[in-house]
Write a structure and sequence with these properties.
Elements lengths: L2 H7 L22 E10 L4 H17 L7 E7 L6 E8 L1 H13 L2 H8 L4 E17 L9 E9 L4 H17 L6 E6 L5 E8 L12 H9 L2 H12 L2 E11 L9
Antiparallel strand pairs: 1-3, 1-4, 2-3, 2-8, 4-6, 5-7, 5-8, 6-7
Helix pairs in contact: 2-4, 6-7
Protein name: Secreted protein
Keywords: Signal
Organism: Ferrimonas gelatinilytica
Length: 256
Amino acid sequence: MNLFCRSIARKLVWVTLPLVMAFSAVLHAEDTLADHWMVTPKAGEQKTFEEALKKHLNYRQGKGDPRQWKVYVQVLGENLNTYIIRSCCFKWAEMDQYRQWGQDNRTTDHWNDHVKPLVAHASHNFSRLDMVNSHWPEDDSEYQYFGVSQMKVKAGHAASTRSDLATISDHAKEMKWPYFWSWSWQEAGDNTLSLVTPFPNYAAMESPQTSFFEALKQHLSSESRAQKLIESWSSHFSDSRYDLYRLRTDLSMTKP
């Protein structure tokens, strides 16, 4: 659970947090996007799948792939045999160039020949990253674990969710909340907000001595104002889930 929202969780119905696969609800003229695939290998084919996936990513890198694809696996959650293959960060216009690069280098053909026969299920989506309200380290190379909370926003609550998200994030920055976090919005499917928090190891996942609510109460000099904000925030979501992921550096591409 993310240390930013985990301490809020004791005051909220939903919050069990921390990844940035890992961003604001404020929309900009140019959205910043992350691209991610969720791939589940066929039963009994996990080892062979990993070998084929590594071979494919090496192929892409050998062709000069302008993106760095990282691979994550769940260590807590319900999809422990699912791999997240993710790349960040780019603009919409760059997708056309990248699609052409893929066609020129026959990357889909290579995937279909070497990896697809081992895949039981795959899905694809983009995330719009909220760079304004996130607080992410410039160098995240020390982080191996990522807590991801996904929250389904109720119909009609998008604008108020964005407003409260910005307010909470501003307060967290002002009171120097000592953790990193990233917000993102799922592009396709349900109106889903994600919160990601990075950890270098399991020890870093310990609950803070001072909860977020206690820190917020002190920052606002008012328990009632803090309580009102937290209650407003919790009212926006119909459902939530939390998963913990580990970066598989042995499968991931190195920087281009």
